[in-house]
Amino acid sequence: xxxxxxxxxxxxxxxxxxxxxxxxxxxxxxxxxxxxxxxxxxxxxxxxxxxxxxxxxxxxxxxxxxxxxxxxxxxxxxxxxxxxxxxxxxxxxxxxxxxxxxxxxxxxxxxxxxxxxxxxxxxxxxxxxxxxxxxxxxxxxxxxxxxxxxxxxxxxxxxxxxxxxxxxxxxxxxxxxxxxxxxxxxxxxxxxxxxxxxxxxxxxxxxxxxxxxxxxxxxxxxxxxxxxxxxxxxxxxxxxxxxxxx
Length: 246
Ligand SMILES: C[S@@+](CC[C@H](N)C(=O)[O-])C[C@H]1O[C@@H](n2cnc3c(N)ncnc32)[C@H](O)[C@@H]1O
Description:
Radius of gyration: 17 Å
Strand order of the largest sheet: 3-2-1-4-5-7-6
Helix content: 40-55%
Order of helices and strands: HHHHEHEHEEHEHHHEE
Structural class: alpha/beta
CATH topology: Rossmann fold
Bound molecules: S-adenosylmethionine
Number of strands: 7
């Protein structure tokens, strides 16, 4: 692990600026690296998350949409309109190319901690592999709660910090030894895939993330751990007004 990557997590470091530049730089090989690193599983997780929350006719926002794969999975799951937001323009350009003329998906620059959307304006807020990258996670969850209508649904896919267990050493080896080497080879980027395991170490376990969702006012309805617990899927709901949060 590099010291300079660790320093991004110190008080006062501008991690958001690093993340924005880094994703802009790796955008040409981002999708390929995802497929290789997950042994082709990642699109299945996005489809699963989309199917868990999207109902026909829904308006959806995909925060940190990147190259748009979760947004497109939401369209396939029946959404009427999907808005994909990201703060790295080159990632969005790829999303737009992928969506082609699919007029039901729109991609725009936006920050997940300050969504350019009115209160209670969407049925679903979803995000894949973004929340770990956000220094002010609670601000992003507050924004999700603000733009969702009461009864709206949330889906988050993320690489959680792993609880101790017999799988942990294998996952650690994958993320700290294999992923950075593959990442350098495929993306040509020096630090992006070294940042990845460091960001996982600084992130939350599925249990801790569940607690943060509840703190933001969500009712957590499902937590699934996928691919030997290296990926977590959280499904939650914004309560209807005047109902108790569990
Ligand atoms: C690991 S990529 C995930 C992309 C996509 N969701 C996927 O499933 O492949 C993380 C994305 O989140 C974006 N991102 C990180 N922080 C953000 C923020 N505060 N606001 C908007 N986008 C953000 C990055 O630019 C990057 O495109």
